[in-house]
Amino acid sequence: MTTTVSNDELIATAQAVLNPRTVGDRLFGDVAATLVTEAGNLYSGVCIDTGSGTGFCAEHAAIAAMVTAREYRIAKVVAVWRSDEGVLHVLPPCGRCREFIRQIDRANIDTEVVLGRGRSASLRELLPVHEWPDPLD
Predict the structure, then answer these.
(1) Residue of 41, 137, 61 whose CA lies nearest to 101
(2) Fewer beta carbons under 10 A from the terminal one: N or C of the chain?
């Protein structure tokens, strides 16, 4: 799978939607994600931290926007966070997000996950044991 969106462009698009906001003791929007679909469309989202584990990661928000638009195949994805010192970081997807990406479409196992300006890996590499297990009997 190839895409014409560079890592730098994807990082910049995610960075543009970073908008941290504190509500009580919760922080919203401090991590942003952008993905590009196989069709070349971009979708972004931010994380929401809520009580009782009902929040979600930025990747989930971007994927929800993609699915709302009736797309399922992710070519490339990135998540970013800015430290209190103003330094931008690329974050790898957590385990829950890795599995979520995989379950949206079988072909997403080959999604390119941006890990830095010049570094990426396939979801297959980040989620190596992803096949349904063989039966024991």
Answers:
(1) 61
(2) C
Domain boundaries, the chain: 7-126
Which CATH topology does 7-126 take? Cytidine Deaminase; domain 2 (3.40.140)
Encode pLDDT of 85-127 as tens digits.
999 999 999 999 999 999 999 999 999 999 999 999 999 999 9
